[in-house]
């Protein structure tokens, strides 16, 4: 059986203080007033997540591919990456076809999240207020469902996505054909995605 190649996810909540909820093992939480990744969040992920990758504790040289979002390329991020023997490869804007998450990973993950959401919303009535409105799920509940969804993404899907982007293909050219296979990112531009609903689908909560 192929071992898991994923790292624990980092969730960023739109709030100013860390939640008091018990966070499930295998997931990290950060907060930001606007719900964005920032330098502190990047530091947390590098130290808690990236450093624990295979070979991370031995500080073997590695490649980290990211986009141009400013938190990914701050001087503190570059310094910490260098400390962890990590080379940052920054993909310029507009090149979605070179980003493994967009190419093959996000679509199944979002599908699993919708399934988790459906299971939660269809659960017994303790998720509903006396007035019949859906209660806002707890942060620990959200974390658990993200964790479950992320764990359902097949390692093979992630490995293949990197190969489709030409990041870790065999040097002998035997995997070059993978580059020309249609990606989920390109097909999504030509076909309606079953999970293409807006973020508003997740905002129908009532906070008591």
The count of β-strands is 4
Gap from first CA to last CA: 46 Å
Poorly predicted regions are 185-208
Total number of helices? 6
Work out the strand percent.
5-15%
Basic shape: globular
The helix fraction, in percent, is: 25-40%
Largest sheet: 2 strands, parallel
Which class of secondary structure composition applies to the elements? alpha/beta
Protein described:
With 208 residues, the chain is of the alpha/beta class. It has a domain of 114 residues. The protein is 34% helix and 11% strand. The chain contains 6 helices and 4 strands, in the order ββαβαβαααα. The strands form 2 sheets. A two-stranded parallel ribbon has the order 1-2. A two-stranded parallel ribbon has the order 3-4. Helix 2 links the parallel strand 3 and strand 4. It is globular and about 65 Å long.
Itemize the secondary structure elements and their pairings.
Layout: E1 10-14, E2 28-32, H1 39-49, E3 62-67, H2 75-83, E4 86-91, H3 100-121, H4 139-152, H5 155-164, H6 184-188
Parallel strand pairs: 1-2, 3-4
Helix pairs in contact: 1-2, 3-4, 3-5
Describe the structure concisely for a colleague.
The protein is of the alpha/beta class and about 210 residues long. The protein has helices at about 40-50, 75-85, 100-120, 140-150, 155-165, 185-190; strands at about 10-15, 30, 60-65, 85-90.
Task: Give keywords.
disordered C terminus, single chain, 34% helix, alpha/beta, two-stranded parallel sheet, 4 strands, two-stranded parallel ribbon, 11% strand, 208 residues
